[in-house]
Amino acid sequence: MNYRIIVTYIILIMLLMSISVMSCTNTDISEGNITTEPAVSTSISSTTSPSTTPTIPEFSEPIICHEFMNWQVSKPQSNYLYDIWGFSSSDIFTVGENGTILHYNGNNWTFMNSGTVSTLRGVWGSSPIDVFAVGDGNTILHYDGEEWSGMTLPSTCEGITDCLLGVWGSSSSNVYVAHIGPGTLIHYDGDNWETIQTPLDLPLHNVWGTSATDVFAVGRYYSVLHYDGQTWSIVTNEGESNCMFSTIWASSSSNIFAAGYRGEIKHYDGDNWRTRYSDTYEFINELWGCSPDNVFAVANKGTLLYYNGTRWNQIESGTKADLHGIWGSSPIDIYIVGGDGIILHYDGTDNP
Fold it and tell me: What is the pTM of this model?
């Protein structure tokens, strides 16, 4: 009986060994090298029927890295502030009503003597010792690093209205000023101011650019003008008479935002202008960004908008004051100015 059991076990072992050898027929063993045939693919074809194709939403769920930004509020004085520009985190200028000019040195805001009581609405500079401020009453001021002094428009600048709204330049000898006159800009070549007549016969409210050969001006009827270094041309001009763009910002010539009346925001992608939903009807006063997917818009009644590269979203500003100007030295060093002298600052700290 025990003999039969042993024989049975031997037969079973031999059968198992033969099965193991059969399973290795795809493996070639020769001269110590082991070569295995490629495994058979088990992937499923990506082709599916129309009924099983997933629906992709128009917008993915936004990732808002600045949704909980902690804005520090200060009011060093009570005059309305309209614009802000800086050269660095410790060299910032802001301007406003009654000739107000404040300077920030990295620690404190201090008054600067502007020599005027006119409301100042725009400020820009090519360096800390070459800063321009413009405003009501045809006011143009220049700062040379020591003091502010007035600049007089020559008689050749006929037709210039008394309200200068925005200023931008590519250098100290290439500065543009926008005003509410009929389609004209003021240009400074480093020595003289002169008027430039554009193809548009409508008020212009702001000017901005990426270089001397890529300059934009915006104004009434949702108008956008472009200068290529040779000529000014109308890019877009649509809307009712009370519709206007008040601000424009671009990261490049193929990524441009313009905004203004009733929260209207249009975006240019290099081929077409398209309206982008802004989530507000408040008047947007200024745009600023530090990258294509990190753009801000400030508006009336404390409205603050943030663009993350996909869509615009409202974020909490911590105030109900009108917000007019925005500038930053980096994504974690941003300033906003507005009504009643309010100044907001973001230093990278978010609320929990």
Answer: 0.79
